[in-house]
Design goal:
Helix content: 40-55%
Radius of gyration: 15 Å
Order of helices and strands: HHHEHEHEE
Number of domains: 1
CATH superfamily: P-loop containing nucleotide triphosphate hydrolases
Number of strands: 4
Largest sheet: 2 strands, parallel
């Protein structure tokens, strides 16, 4: 990846996750769990994938960080990225969009208001 593209990707991270901008000089391993999750998602998106599989992205995160991640996922969906998110946080998942699948065996699938 050309240096200019890398610089653009880094700036995109700071636009999407402003809380990381002030932590530029901090090693990834020293970031909080939420900050590490944001950085991980940003790294995954740097290559421009069309599908993103995410396991337990909200586990153990502060509500503010969950809100930021949900907002980012919504931006990705609007940009045409297919998201497959496995998580136990029904509240966060409901904010992602109208469809969900319940249980790994796909016992139920459909619009959120019809899947209980």
């Amino acid at each position: 990846m050309p240096r200019a593209a890398i610089d653009d990707a880094i700036e995109e991270v700071y636009l999407r996750f402003p809380s990381l901008a002030g932590r530029r000089a901090v090693a990834a391993g020293m970031l909080s769990g939420g900050e590490q999750q944001m950085l991980s998602l940003a790294r995954a998106m740097a290559g421009g994938p069309t599908v993103l599989l995410v396991d337990e992205p909200f586990m153990g995160l502060a509500p503010k960080v969950v809100h930021e991640l949900v907002d980012y996922f919504r931006v990705l969906r609007a940009a045409g990225v297919t998201l497959v998110v496995a998580d136990e946080s029904a509240t966060a998942l409901e904010r992602l969009g109208p469809e969900r699948t319940v249980d790994v065996r796909s016992l139920q699938h459909g619009l959120t208001e019809r899947v209980a």
